[in-house]
Amino acid sequence: MSLPVVSVIIPLFNRADMVQETLDSLVKQTFERWEVIVVDDESTDGGATRVEERGQQDSRIRCIRRNTIERGASVCRNLGVSAARGEFVVFLDSDDCLGPDALERRCADIQEHHELDFIVYQGELFEKLPGDLGLLWNIRKNNTCSLDRFLTHDVPWNISSPVWRKSKFLRLSGFNETLPFAQDWEVHIRALASGLKYVWCDRVDHYIRVATGGRDTITTRSINASLVSQRTQLWKLVAETLLTSSACNDQRRKLLQSTFLHLANELCRVHDLNTAIELLYWVNAQGIFSDHDVAAGKRFVRRRQMVRMLPFGEGIELVLGKVLTQLRTRSLVTLNHSCVPLSRIEAARRPTRGNS
Predict the structure, then answer these.
(1) Distances (CA, A) of 252 to 5, 143, 242
(2) Per-residue model confidence (pLDDT) at position 347
(3) 34-40 and 61-65 as β-strands: parallel, antiparallel, unpaired?
(4) Helices 183-193 and 73-83: angle between axes, nearest 10 degrees
(5) Phi/psi at 316 (nearest 5 deg)?
(6) Which phi and psi angles does 40 have, rounded to 5°?
(7) 42 in the Ramachandran plot: left (φ > 0), alpha (ψ -120 to 50) or beta?
């Protein structure tokens, strides 16, 4: 039997029924030289066993049970890439589906264009059956760079959208296994910042499930202090990637500045003042604020007497001033209907003096 041309990698956790629909969409492909690697993350609903049973009927379907201490979708995807035999790789979530000619078109396109490292395809949202909503995931914007769209939270594509040359994807060192969510978003930013070459194809060829009724989907998430902290971790990684790449410019520094100010705002709203201030220290240390911003910020703060003689480093007055302004207050930081005086912010970071 010839080797597969493309490997489809699916992490699985307690979606025994949904992943069967995903596998059905693969079996119906007009292109036959594929393999699917389902990496089970210790499911408790019998999903892995059902995938293995299908593999006995179709040898292109493989199931790997995670045997590492680390767990999560990123770990599973990286294990899948390591086991992949195809020249190209496609990542699917366990509740997504491919159109019947998706793999045929993707393989033909990327084989034809040797200069490309990956190709992005259009996705369509669905609830119960592909095509039932008729809504696109997003649209191409010819006048806007994809990297800038990711940085402004206008995510142009999702995990299932690209087909990758495996050799090029491996240069990215895989998915970040420390992130609890948005791992695909982060790896796409790394790919763009590193200069990988790609094109966007407007053809709809995959379907992305959205929540309906009681059906499970990874797209639903409540906002809480833990989530804000995780978002902060994510954006620090993104900033480090961008600041050390040739893709960094003044405009993107401003995008980072805006995002971190928003995160500091959110941290204040969930009563985590210390982490908010630590974040602003970190942002300032990365040089995200220019000397001009620092000088303007100091004048801004002094003019309004919002922060007086704070023992912070260069530029920290600026970010605190802007955070306070974003919260629409001149003398108080509003925290979920309660107020914290500026004196508390000062006390949180004021250095302790010795008795000598």
Answers:
(1) 37, 16, 8
(2) 40
(3) parallel
(4) 60
(5) -70, -30
(6) -85, 135
(7) left
Quick one: what percent of the chain has pLDDT higher than 90? 56
Round to whole Å and give the CA distance between 116 and 168.
Answer: 10
Q: CA-to-CA distance for 190 and 63, rounded, in angstroms?
A: 28
Measured from the Cβ of residue 100, the count of other Cβ atoms closer than 10 Å reads 14
Query: At residue 114, does pLDDT exceed 50?
Result: yes
48 or 281: which leads in pLDDT: 48
Helix, coil or strand: residue 76:
helix
Q: Which of 64, 60, 79, 161 is nearest to 120 (CA)?
A: 161
Pair of tokens at residue 119: 């190709």
Q: How far is residue 209's CA from residue 214's CA, in Å, rounded to a whole number? A: 13
Distance CA 304, CA 282 (A): 25
Measured between alpha carbons, how far is 201 from 122 in angstroms, rounded to an integer? Answer: 7
CA dihedral over 202, 207, 211, 216, signed as positive or negative: negative
Q: How confident is the model at residue 275 (pLDDT cuts 50, 70, 90)?
A: confident
What is the pLDDT at residue 65? 93
Q: What distances in angstroms separate CA 116 from CA 146, 169, 199, one per listed residue?
A: 16, 12, 8
Question: Mean pLDDT of all residues in the chain?
Answer: 81
Instruction: Pull the structure tokens for residue 127.
Output: 């609830």
d(CA 157, CA 204): 12
Q: Which amino acid is it at 209?
A: R
Cβ–Cβ under 8 Å, residues 253 and 288: yes
Question: Is the pLDDT reported for residue 205 higher than 70?
Answer: yes
Mean pLDDT calculated for residue range 178-206: 94
Taking only the tens place, the pLDDT of each residue in 70-96 is 889 999 999 999 999 999 999 999 999
